[in-house]
Specification:
Length: 251
């Protein structure tokens, strides 16, 4: 007698729209060696039939690179915020429970609106303004010792996992979150970026800035790229304190 084909059971938290009531739906997906959560969701999309044999709407989610670089496929898998592309089925306890991140508003199913994080990056000017400087020649070089640790900060893929893990980021708070704070450290360390250093520090000292961090350290434990977020927060705590004293004595 032929052995029954192996399947993987998923329990997906779904939501038909931003104001709709969440509900769960179960699916059984044919197992494949080395499959990840995204490939399972693709199988459900190809054949949207739930575990009861009923045809249903395909599950909505976001993904892009499928190699843990873009940060688009962030979701909560078995209670842990992470990337769906790097979550291998063989390493997960079953049934595999998949739900959207709660920190951000749900658009539909596993798709969330991460505008809060991007607005935080805008607030701290997490970029290097170079408009009009194209004819000034090569910029200043960054010391190799600084470049090595700055590169680690540059690995941030704005996935939002650190904000999901942070207990101080919620709809009741205005805390900008660890990602934006770490990016201030990155751009303030750049030889050209440091020209706007004071503006970024001022932004961190506003309501919802660095004072909102409760030092739970969930962010650094959950970051899929291993970014030293708590080190950045400590460094920016020191930098904003020095900046405050500097402002006092220059008034």
């Amino acid at each position: 007698m032929a052995e029954a084909a192996r399947t993987v059971r998923f329990i997906v938290t779904r939501q038909d729209g931003p104001d709709a009531t969440p509900y769960t739906e179960e699916f059984e997906v044919p197992y494949r060696l080395n499959m990840n959560v995204i490939s399972a969701l693709m199988e459900i999309q190809r054949n949207p039939v739930n575990a009861n044999g009923q045809h249903t709407k395909p599950v909505n989610w976001e993904s892009n690179c499928l190699e843990e670089v873009c940060g688009a496929c962030s979701m909560v898998i078995n209670g842990k915020p992470r990337q769906g592309c790097s979550a291998l089925v063989d390493n997960l306890e079953q049934p595999i429970r998949v739900s959207p991140m709660k920190t951000f508003p749900v658009v539909r199913d596993l798709v969330v609106d991460r505008a809060r994080m991007f607005n935080a990056l805008k607030k701290v000017k997490a970029w290097i303004p170079i408009d009009g400087t194209y004819d000034l020649g090569p910029g200043p070089r960054m010391a190799e010792s600084k470049r090595q640790w700055a590169y680690e900060l540059a690995k941030c893929m704005t996935c939002g996992v650190c904000m999901e893990a942070c207990p101080n980021v919620s709809e009741k708070t205005t805390f900008i979150g660890p990602a934006a704070i770490s990016q201030v450290r990155l751009f303030n360390s750049h030889p050209t970026g440091e020209m706007n250093k004071d503006e970024r520090l001022d932004a961190l000292m506003e309501d919802g800035g660095i004072e909102g961090c409760g030092n739970s350290q969930n962010c650094v434990r959950s970051c899929p790229k291993g970014i030293p977020l708590t080190t950045s927060i400590a460094a920016m705590n020191a930098a904003t304190t020095k900046h405050l004293f500097k402002k006092w004595f220059t008034v």
